[in-house]
From TrEMBL:
It catalyses: N(6)-(pyridoxal phosphate)-L-lysyl-[4-amino-5-hydroxymethyl-2-methylpyrimidine phosphate synthase] + L-histidyl-[4-amino-5-hydroxymethyl-2-methylpyrimidine phosphate synthase] + 2 Fe(3+) + 4 H2O = L-lysyl-[4-amino-5-hydroxymethyl-2-methylpyrimidine phosphate synthase] + (2S)-2-amino-5-hydroxy-4-oxopentanoyl-[4-amino-5-hydroxymethyl-2-methylpyrimidine phosphate synthase] + 4-amino-2-methyl-5-(phosphooxymethyl)pyrimidine + 3-oxopropanoate + 2 Fe(2+) + 2 H(+). PANTHER family: 4-AMINO-5-HYDROXYMETHYL-2-METHYLPYRIMIDINE PHOSPHATE SYNTHASE THI11-RELATED. Responsible for the formation of the pyrimidine heterocycle in the thiamine biosynthesis pathway. Catalyzes the formation of hydroxymethylpyrimidine phosphate (HMP-P) from histidine and pyridoxal phosphate (PLP). The protein uses PLP and the active site histidine to form HMP-P, generating an inactive enzyme. The enzyme can only undergo a single turnover, which suggests it is a suicide enzyme. It comes from Mesorhizobium jarvisii. Keywords: Iron, Metal-binding, Pyridoxal phosphate, Thiamine biosynthesis, Transferase. One of its GO terms (biological process) is thiamine biosynthetic process. One of its GO terms (molecular function) is transferase activity. InterPro entries: NMT1/THI5, SsuA/THI5, TAT_signal. The keyword DNA repair does not apply. This is Thiamine pyrimidine synthase. The keyword Transit peptide does not apply. SUPFAM superfamilies: Periplasmic binding protein-like II. Belongs to the NMT1/THI5 family. PROSITE patterns: TAT.
Length: 387
């Protein structure tokens, strides 16, 4: 728990928020002119940066499944955890130290507010992944009851996620207090009696159970119309034909990984577990599969109404930008089409779905995974929702 007294006041001031998020800022001077010149000429190794400060999670399963299956077709790709500072994923892309970030809409809005020339090119989170965790018996489906209460965050930057989520549910966010309880300890802090609630998300719910953190949840995936995390790149890269072509191939790998996971979630979990043995030991087959099924629900959304994996619902994004402008998270109105694009989506989804299904179906599962009843797990995905 932070001992900064400013965190005990309602909300986190804009000034404090910028101080926190500025702490891990990578400047152009630190990289040097040579680094920028090399980046401008060609991607070379294409670097994707996590928003979580770690890669040892199931959230990125499409990449690991696609890499194992050879779907990146010889592209030179790299995954980096980045700092745990919630805004590093956009800062590093902005200054050229990474090529693609995976921010929440709130952190993306931080980038826009601070003049970063970034654009969302592949919307992973078709449904709102974020949730509010409560200790058992203390939850409510009426989030207005959080007024006057304290919400725990892993990073102060996550206020940009929580404020619009609450405001869209009619909460007066000026009456909500936030405490930065640290990554990865904010869930443990809630279980230990600190604060009244905590920010969480799909996939993490299962990981918390593995750590003995058994909460009940107000689920955004069931109750919110806001979008979730997305892939962003520098806007200028989309003006470069070679880089645009590379991005289409790269995103096709992710889309194929998403399709693979949808067709055989257990095989996708195994691909991640092979990469991270400690994660495998901590979660095990059942909770790993539970986690990935939660995320598949978010990433897939209502595919019948989408233009394919990664397609932006511009109405949902516009609703988000209108909400954060109303609450003062951004000072100027934002038009969704100006900062989000579906231009790369047709090429990203131009792959042989029958082949991917055959690849997924052809995986020989280990004994622990083969024994799982996936349909039974699906039937209980939302048992921890507040009743």
């Amino acid at each position: 728990m932070t001992k900064d007294n400013s965190m005990n006041q309602p909300g986190i001031s804009r000034r404090y928020f910028l101080q926190v998020t500025g702490a891990g800022l990578v400047t152009a001077t630190a990289l040097g002119a040579t680094g920028f010149k090399a980046r401008a000429e060609a991607y070379g190794k294409f670097t994707w940066i996590s928003p979580r400060g770690t890669l040892e999670v199931l959230d990125d399963y499409p990449y690991w499944a696609a890499k194992k299956a050879g779907y990146f077709d010889g592209l030179d790709t790299d995954m980096q955890p980045g700092p745990s500072d919630g805004t590093a994923t956009v800062k590093f892309v902005d200054v050229g130290q990474a090529d693609m970030g995976f921010p929440s809409p709130g952190v993306f809005s931080f980038a826009i507010q601070n003049g970063m020339k970034l654009k969302s090119v592949f919307h992973m989170g078709a449904r709102d992944t974020f949730s509010i965790a409560f200790r058992k018996g203390e939850g409510s489906n009426d989030l207005k009851k959080l007024e006057g209460k304290t919400i725990l965050l892993g990073s102060a930057a996550w206020q940009s996620i929580t404020d619009p989520l609450l405001a869209a549910q009619g909460v007066d966010i000026k009456k909500v207090k936030y405490v930065e309880a640290g990554w990865p300890t904010w869930g443990t802090a809630l279980a230990g009696g600190q604060g009244d609630a905590a920010l969480s998300w799909e996939g993490l719910r299962a990981e918390w159970i593995a750590k003995g953190l058994d909460f009940e949840y107000w689920l955004g995936v069931k109750n919110s119309k806001l979008p979730a995390n997305t892939f962003v790149v520098r806007s200028a890269d989309l003006e470069d034909p070679d880089k645009k072509a590379f991005l289409e191939k790269y995103l096709r790998g992710w889309a194929m990984g998403l399709e693979f996971g949808y067709q055989n979630p257990r095989a996708a979990v195994e691909a991640v577990f092979e990469q991270f043995p400690t994660l495998a030991k901590n979660l095990g087959p059942e909770l790993g599969t539970t986690s990935i099924l939660q995320q598949i629900n978010v990433f897939r959304g209502d595919m019948d109404k989408r233009g394919g994996w990664g397609s932006h619902d511009m109405a949902s994004w516009q609703g988000f930008f209108d909400e954060i402008h109303k609450i003062g998270q951004i000072t100027n109105p934002v038009k969704a089409e100006d900062v989000c694009t579906n231009d790369l989506i047709p090429a990203a989804n131009d792959f042989d779905k029958a082949k991917v299904k055959a690849d997924a179906d052809g995986v020989k599962l280990s004994e622990g995974f083969a024994a799982l009843d996936v349909e039974k797990i699906k039937a209980h995905l939302f048992d921890s929702a507040v009743k």
